[in-house]
Write a structure and sequence with these properties.
Shape: elongated
Order of helices and strands: EEEEEEEEEH
Structural class: alpha+beta
Low-confidence stretches: none
Radius of gyration: 20 Å
CATH topology: ATP Synthase, domain 1
Helix content: 25-40%
CATH superfamily: F0F1 ATP synthase delta/epsilon subunit, N-terminal
CATH architecture: Sandwich
Largest sheet: 9 strands, mixed
Strand content: over 45%
Number of domains: 1
Number of helices: 1
Length: about 130
C-alpha cells in the first residue's frame, strides 16, 4: 500500500522559490516553538518565524531551507509557505549563518528606513505647524 505524500510550495513575494512533490515530513519554527507534521495532519495556518525549515522526501532525504518570517498554510496534502526570503542548502551551519547575516541585516536596514521615514514625517509636521502659525 502506497502512503500519501504532501505537495510543498515555497513562495517568495515575486516568485516561486521551490515546488516539491512527495514530501513525507515537514518541520518549521513558530513563536511557540518547533512544529512538525505528516501528510494526514489536520489543516492549519501558522505564522513562521525566521529559522530553518526542514522537509523530507523518500527520494532525496532531508532538505533544509533558511526562511524569513511568513505564513504556512496546509490544506489537504498541499502545503504552501509564503516568506519574504529563503535560502536553500544541505549544510545546516551555512544556513544558520545565512539566517544571521542576511535576514538580520535586512531587519536592521528596515529599522533604518523606518527611522528615516519617521524623521521625514516629523519634519513635515513641523513645517505644517509653521505654515499654520504664519
Amino acid at each position: 500500500m502506497q502512503t500519501e505524500k504532501m505537495n510543498l510550495k515555497i513562495l517568495l513575494p515575486f516568485r516561486v522559490f521551490n515546488e516539491v512533490n512527495g514530501v513525507t515530513r515537514i518541520v518549521f519554527e513558530t513563536q511557540q516553538g518547533s512544529f512538525g507534521f505528516l501528510p494526514h495532519r489536520l489543516d492549519c495556518v501558522a505564522a513562521v518565524v525566521p529559522g530553518i525549515f526542514t522537509y523530507e522526501t523518500e527520494m532525496n532525504g532531508e532538505a533544509y531551507v533558511a526562511v524569513d518570517e511568513g505564513v504556512l498554510v496546509k490544506t489537504g496534502l498541499d502545503v504552501n509557505i509564503s516568506v519574504r526570503n529563503a535560502i536553500g542548502g544541505k549544510d545546516l551551519a551555512q544556513l544558520r549563518d545565512a539566517v544571521k547575516n542576511e535576514f538580520l541585516e535586512l531587519n536592521e536596514q528596515e529599522q533604518l528606513v523606518k527611522l528615516a521615514m519617521s524623521k521625514m514625517e516629523s519634519s513635515f509636521i513641523h513645517r505644517l505647524k509653521d505654515l499654520d502659525n504664519e
